[in-house]
Amino acid sequence: MWADTLLIVFISICTALLGEGLTWLMVYRTEKYQKLKAEVEKQSKKLEKRKEIHGDSLDKQHKKKIEREEERLKNNNRDLSFVKMKSMFAIGFAFTALLSMFNSIFDGRVVARLPFLPLNWIQGLSHRNLPGEDFYDCSFIFLYILCTMSIRQNIQKLLGFAPSRAASKQGNSLFGPTPGQFK
Amino acid sequence: MNTKTKLIEKNGSSNPPPTSVWTRTFTSNSEWPDKEEFLDVIYWARQALGIVLGIFWGLIPLKGLIGLVLFAVINAGVIYFYFGSFQNVDEDEYGGAWELTKEGFMTSFAGFLVTWIIIYSGLYYEVDKFS
């Protein structure tokens, strides 16, 4: 049991590093990305500060300024996503192939025993391709997803590739379904 | 050293604190001029806590929903106590207590589940299987 679980942790560390390495090669090291990222971060911080100071004021001039900056930030964020998209596709394909290979290796194999009964809608994942009805048995894919969830983000943060909080905060509010966004 | 201290006193809070992040992390009521730095401390503390709790739950072994609920309560409670009582930071500066309480929670939860599952199945699976 130890061998399988530790192997899965090792696999997910390797795939996370591979993913970040590939993204670095294709995106992070490019001048265009670095310039855009710095710009987005600067604007996000500026916008956040401005909103903090003038958030409640009804001054039209301030509101207009904030709106203009939001628009600029939105455009930069969109450009940033386009730059990332290329590598996302490449990595997506590579990982789908890798995952199907690991899936066939661990097909029908119970890799771990869950100390809790997963919710109904998770059982499809945690019991994928496993024989029997014992839902405490854990499939490869469930453990792999959990490992990736924790390891990938931590590696991104350690290497400094994670998007800054200010940028993701502004980004979320901007990409939300705001009415009249595409007018 | 003396002149440096005097200079800091003179300039007040506009100067960056002279102590390292590690020292400030374990000293109560520390000053955090950089918000990101404090959020990073919360984030990494959470990851460490998740892994430690996962190891404990696996060793005991704790089973079922109670393990998940206890993790959520302890994880949120410890962090809440840390920023509210130990560091005494102004929550509103960080967008409210909720923002701080959820900082890095999902990653910590995933890390906790992984360690809990691995330790539990490694130590007790064979026993479970034959009992």
From TrEMBL, chain A:
It is a multi-pass membrane protein. It comes from Psylliodes chrysocephalus. It comes from the Eukaryota. Belongs to the TMCO1 family. The chain crosses the membrane at residues 6-27, 88-106. This is Calcium load-activated calcium channel. Residues 30-86 form a coiled coil. One of its GO terms (biological process) is endoplasmic reticulum calcium ion homeostasis. It is found in: Endoplasmic reticulum membrane. Calcium-selective channel required to prevent calcium stores from overfilling. One of its GO terms (cellular component) is endoplasmic reticulum membrane. InterPro entries: EMC3/TMCO1, TMCO1. Keywords: Calcium, Calcium channel, Calcium transport, Coiled coil, Endoplasmic reticulum, Ion channel, Ion transport, Membrane, Transmembrane, Transmembrane helix, Transport. Its main location: endoplasmic reticulum. One of its GO terms (molecular function) is calcium channel activity.
From TrEMBL, chain B:
It holds the Pfam family EMC6. The chain crosses the membrane at residues 41-60, 104-125. It is a multi-pass membrane protein. One of its GO terms (cellular component) is mitochondrion. InterPro entries: EMC6-like (IPR029008), RCAF1 (IPR010742). Its main location: endoplasmic reticulum. The keyword Transmembrane applies. One of its GO terms (biological process) is mitochondrial respirasome assembly. It is found in: Endoplasmic reticulum membrane. Keywords: Endoplasmic reticulum, Membrane, Transmembrane, Transmembrane helix. The keyword Endoplasmic reticulum applies. Belongs to the EMC6 family. This is Rab5-interacting protein. It comes from Psylliodes chrysocephalus.
